[in-house]
Amino acid sequence: MDEKLKMVNFLGQYLAASRSEGQIFDMALMISQNVMGFDHAIIRMLEKDLLITRSHIGFPRDAADIVIKLGEGITGEVAKTGQAIVSEDTQKDPRFLKGVDGCRSELCVPLTYNKATIGVINLESEKPGFFTKQDKSVMETLASQMAAAMETKRLRDELMRAEKLSVVGQMASSILHDIRNDIHTLNISADLLKSRELNPRLVKKVSEMVKGSGENIYGLIEDIFEFVKTGESRLYKKGVNLSGLLRSVLEETKSGTPDNVRVNLSSDESIEIEVDRRRFKRALLNLVSNGVEAMPEGGELTISASVKGGRVVIEIGDTGVGIENWHIEKIWEPLFTHGKKRGTGLGMAIVKKIVEDHGWKIGVESHIGKGTTFTITQARGTP
Ligand SMILES: Nc1ncnc2c1ncn2[C@@H]1O[C@H](COP(=O)(O)OP(=O)(O)O)[C@@H](O)[C@H]1O
Ligand SMILES: [Mg+2]
């Protein structure tokens, strides 16, 4: 095989890895410069019936800025007919439009996609007869690789957009569903307060329902903020007493914890950790509420904090339904929810993100029908 063709075939593979159209153009020009050696090169894309410059090497600004009409000059003709042209001596070629001084020969190939011409790539040399027939087919190969890379890029973008939309859509619908449930509870509570005789027990019950719904909505909003901000991992760390933090987590989850769930806390009072209090608490809240939710028939939630081998270890265990082996890895994925009426699937993804942003580690052990324990371990060397 022709050496140049071999090079183009080899280098052309890299085009497909380009992340933007601009990168594809720049890379294609670099490849053709390496393979062909020329003085100036330019890529123009067709927009309506005009050829607009997208990338160039060695062209003076004013020559690169020239907009060429479809059918005009060599470039315009290639775009119009979809056939490559080699002009061996531009001075004798009536089609030649003077762009750069001293250009004596030219090779112009169309960029074709789905049988339609979408642009042209133009190489120029100061030597007459510089480009051969073989060069023409080498450049045609490169042009088809470029078109394929552009199509791959377009499909990849479309896929990403669709994926993002579906994540946002799924998230929105599950969250709105949850909020609707809570609003329903609030409405019922309002009716109860209005229409029934107000005995103190009922008032207490209704007030707990109102508080629980408020906390749910608040927690959802916090989760959404946390999730949307995942790109931003700036932590505002300060010294926090762990026992105090755990107590405030339990205080906050109290109204959502049914009476048949016993809660045990054992924590060494002296443990101080250096964390972003708000976010670390968010993670713990999610773990506690998952634990409670895993025990619809009641059970025991055990939270312990201790120092083992110089590291702080926090364990949150429940005696609930457990997690099946096949989805134990999936629980960390955003939007993965299983076995609940009201799940957003954001909780564990947030937990993992927060814990890892702190440089800590989280692990899980679970047995079906027996329960689940999450273990958070401090990174070595962080106070
Ligand atoms: N303590 C637990 N016991 C059993 N299953 C759990 C526990 N924690 C998490 N899971 C599983 O992981 C899934 C994902 O949790 P999470 O991301 O918090 O979403 P959600 O709670 O909204 O479903 C849950 O739906 C559940 O199936
Ligand atoms: Mg959850």
Concise synopsis of the structure shown:
It comes from hydrothermal vent metagenome. Keywords: ATP-binding, Kinase, Nucleotide-binding, Phosphoprotein, Transferase, Two-component regulatory system. It contains nine helices and 13 strands.
Written overview of the protein:
- The chain is an alpha+beta fold.
- It has three domains: 155 residues, 2-Layer Sandwich (Beta-Lactamase), CATH 3.30.450; 58 residues; 149 residues, Heat Shock Protein 90 (2-Layer Sandwich).
- 45% of the residues lie in helices and 23% in strands.
- Strands 3-2-1-6-5-4 form a six-stranded antiparallel β-sheet, sandwiched between helices. A five-stranded mixed β-sheet has the order 8-10-11-13-12, with helices on one face. The protein has a two-stranded antiparallel ribbon with strand order 7-9.
- Helix 2 runs antiparallel to helix 5 and helix 8 packs antiparallel against helix 9.
- It is elongated.
- The two termini are 64 Å apart.
- It binds adenosine-5'-diphosphate and magnesium ion.
- The site of adenosine-5'-diphosphate has 22 residues, from helix 8 and helix 9.
- Keywords: ATP-binding, Kinase, Nucleotide-binding, Phosphoprotein, Transferase, Two-component regulatory system.
Q: How many domain units?
A: 3
Strand content: 15-25%
Give the bound compounds.
adenosine-5'-diphosphate, magnesium ion
Radius of gyration: 33 Å
Q: Give the overall form.
A: elongated
CATH superfamily of the largest domain: GAF domain
CATH topology of the largest domain: Beta-Lactamase
Number of helices: 9
- From the 3D coordinates, which CATH architecture of the largest domain would you assign? 2-Layer Sandwich
Low-confidence stretches: none
Task: Report the end-to-end length measured between terminal Cα atoms.
Answer: 64 Å
Order of helices and strands: HHEEHEHEEEHHEHEEHEEHEE
Mean pLDDT: 87
The helix content, as a percent range, equals: 40-55%
Main β-sheet, spatial strand arrangement: 3-2-1-6-5-4
Structural class: alpha+beta
Protein name: Histidine kinase domain-containing protein
InterPro entries: GAF, GAF-like_dom_sf, HATPase_C_sf, HATPase_dom, His_kinase_dom, HisK_dim/P_dom, HisK_dim/P_sf, Sig_transdc_His_kin-like_C
Keywords: ATP-binding, Kinase, Nucleotide-binding, Phosphoprotein, Transferase, Two-component regulatory system
Domain Histidine kinase: 174-382
